[in-house]
Amino acid sequence: MIGSIEELRALYPPAKPRALQKQLSRLDDHCRRFISLSPFVVLASGDGLNQDASPRGGAPGFAKVLDDTTLLIPDSPGNNRLDSLSNIIASGRLGLLFLIPGVDESLRINGAAEVSVDETLLAQVEDERREPRVVIRVTLEEAYLHCAKALMRSKLWSDESRRERSVLPSMGQMIQDQTSGSGEPESQATMLARYQNEL
User: Fold this and answer.
1) CA-CA to 102 of 20 to 30 Å: which in 4, 40, 76, 156?
2) CATH code given to domain 15-154
3) Gap between the Cα atoms of 191 and 175, Å rounded
4) 154-192: per-residue pLDDT in tens?
5) What residue spans define the domains of the chain?
6) pTM for this model (two decimals)
7) How far apart are CA 82 and CA 67, in angstroms?
8) 126/62 Cα distance (integer angstroms)
9) What are 115's strand-pairing partners?
10) 171 within 8 A of 190, measured Cβ to Cβ
């Protein structure tokens, strides 16, 4: 086991200057454009004991840029576990990873965060279906475009990487197996129809 940063650093060459210089403290035009095109972001949060990575999605640009250091992310209906929201309340911190389908680069943002019910903020992230119950307000401290290597290795957007949904049991079957449930599991088609009404 590696027990110190020094031991870890000894295994790697120093970061290239460009990798350090690209870190910004404000959202420039490129970051703003990336966010406006992104329909998907992963929220990374923790409360000091537990960590969580949670997906969020919507129409491209569902996350709103208020100014050079402020982002709004609506909380759309989910499973009501509230892991990410609870972590934000506990720590006041959040990491974000924005993705654009077909683009191998990603955008990373780290900063302070709060969960808000401010009506002015909620109105800014309202969509055609609803105004969310809460909005996550992120005050940016670090933003940088992440290189394409991970997505290139994974071939995430390529047709050859796509899998038919049938390679896995239905979500209903998997959950029933994991929870030792009984009765007929919900079919994939039924679940998707239910989800469609809850989006």
Assistant:
1) 76
2) 2.30.110.10
3) 12
4) 999 999 999 999 999 999 999 999 998 888 888 888 888
5) 15-154, 164-198
6) 0.93
7) 27
8) 9
9) 136
10) no
